[in-house]
Amino acid sequence: MNLDTLLKQKRPVITDGAMGTYFTQKTGFSIHECEWANISRPELISEIHREYVKAGAQFLRTNTFSANTKSLGRPLADVLEIVRAGYRLAKEAAGCQAVAAADMTAIYPRGDEETDLLPEYLAIADAFLSEGAEVFLFETLTELSPFDQIADYLKKKKPECKVLISFTVSPEGITRLGVPLRRLLDEVKPHRELFDGIGLNCGCGPAHILKFARELLSYSRQYLSLPVLVMPNAGYPAMEENRTVFDTSPEYFSHQAVRIAELGVDMIGGCCGTTPKHLQLLSRLIQKKREPLAAVTTTVTAVGSLEKSAPRESRFAQKLRKGEFVMAAELDPPYGSRVDKLLTACRVLQNSGVDIVTISDSPMARVKLDPVVCGAKLQRETGMEVLPHFCCRDRNVNALRAMLLGAQCENIRTILAVTGDHVPELDRGYIKPVFNVTSAKLMEMISQMNQDVFADSPFTIGGAFNPNVANSKAELARLEKKLKAGAVFFLTQPVFDEGRISTVKEAREMGAKMLLGIMPLVSYRNAVYMNNEVPGIQIPTAYVNRFSPEMSREEAQRTGIEIALEIAESLRPHADGFYFMTPFNRAEIVAELIEKCREM
């Protein structure tokens, strides 16, 4: 049995259903044991595969969905053993009645680590090839990369192999990063020669996925000419006694899935929550159809065919675009809900001519007032443009997207995306860092939302850059990734050493607008503390020695301003703007600096 033969039949190919959720339902074991069962309980996995074949499935996915080092927490050698065993089990169960497909999905790094995962993907692909795999399914994807590279690799190593790709979207028709289905399909279009089928799976129940299946089918007919695969979930899950449970009946699922099949899709099956019973009823209903199922005739409207007004820019964004020198000043939100002092500080900065006020997001992992709430309050009451920091440490993708919607609702149009400081070891037992995405991924998500939900008034995206690190090449590589993700400008750590200018120069040559950090010191104690206890900040001894413990507050403040002005004057030719960190929210210090920097 081969895929080409199956696709030539008059009715859609029936795929299998869920492995993980059915494994848990059938055994009571944790879903995390599912892939390892290829080794520890092979007879159980074989039994599940055979149940699906008996139910009418003609397309079996290997039990390898989470077979990767990140998901399983096992070394690559173990993962490859699981992969090879998984293919053998599916191939044996398929026999001459079904096709066994090597199943792969995205590998997600843990926390905020940035790792090149392509070698692991290719090692997994090679493990499948070593067992004779001829059909591959990349499923439950939210973006094309790096699966275009993997498909290209497979086609070069085994030109006759078939590669299918399947995306997942929410009931709103977007991925977890806010990418709409149409844009995913547009990304596939230039690479269509690499694929032998395209689909949708997971994310939605059969009722919601119907309209997206119609869109996918129409797009494929017009632009891709690829067979279409649709595998919805049984419905939506509930938690019962710490277990994921799907209550949707097989009867309901099968009748809804037939509606999808009637669109004219080439392959139909199930994903999470579906069982052999679901697929058996679906198969029977499709077999009862006397006539070939209809082909959809909906026309896809070309993106950009409708007239749109030019997007609105913030004043800060306009200045950046025009190449004007800009000034930003940071205020630290309070640990509490009263912002009276912050409003006063904001007005002082506003009167000095600052272009934008930045609001930090619980720096050093110490909780403070929410930066969007705080920024919105300042902007509403003063008219001052604000730049809230968005920290990935404390929020998952849903929370970040909700926060973006809130910022847009409050007419905030500039965002600083940061990964965030790590939680101190002392607090890790109680405070759990999230790091669902890195700052670069958050930027990518904002860029995608800028093209859709925020198209009329998109965010201008900023990032962080540290020119003081020892490994400047790695920092510049991160900056390049952020630029590709949509970042326009960067706020740097305080620059006290002119020797760091070469790194800044390289960043600007890459197209980054650089707002160089200037942090006025206010006392000897402050200088010593910042130099020794705050990561990423290095203060030359010559500057520290210009203070003394005996100085009055006024003398120390004047010394700090003098040093900051000297630094600003030396940095001015190498910057697109300055980013002033306001010490202890003493806005009058930064206001004086801004006024004098305007005269340079």
List the helices and strands and how they pair.
Layout: H1 3-7, E1 13-14, H2 20-27, H3 37-40, H4 42-55, E2 59-61, H5 69-72, H6 76-94, E3 99-104, H7 118-130, E4 135-141, H8 147-157, E5 162-167, H9 181-188, E6 197-201, H10 206-224, E7 228-231, E8 238-240, E9 243-245, H11 250-261, E10 267-268, H12 276-288, H13 315-322, E11 326-331, H14 340-352, E12 356-359, H15 371-382, E13 386-391, H16 397-409, E14 414-418, H17 439-450, E15 460-465, H18 472-485, E16 489-494, H19 501-509, E17 513-518, H20 524-533, H21 541-544, H22 553-571, E18 577-581, H23 587-598
Parallel strand pairs: 1-10, 2-3, 3-4, 4-5, 5-6, 6-7, 7-10, 11-12, 11-18, 12-13, 13-14, 14-15, 15-16, 16-17, 17-18
Antiparallel strand pairs: 8-9
Question: Explain this structure to me?
Answer:
This protein is of the alpha/beta class and 600 residues long. The chain has 2 domains: 3-288, Homocysteine-binding-like domain (TIM Barrel, Alpha-Beta Barrel), CATH 3.20.20; 315-521 and 575-598, Alpha-Beta Barrel (TIM Barrel). Helices cover 43% and strands 14% of the residues. The chain is built from 23 helices and 18 strands. The strands form 3 sheets. Strands 1-10-7-6-5-4-3-2 form an 8-stranded parallel β-sheet. Helix 19 (501-509) links the parallel strand 16 (489-494) and strand 17 (513-518). Helix 4 runs parallel beside helix 6 and helix 11 (250-261) packs across helix 12. The longest helix is centred in the first third of the chain and has 19 residues, at 76-94. It is elongated. It starts with a helix and ends with a helix.
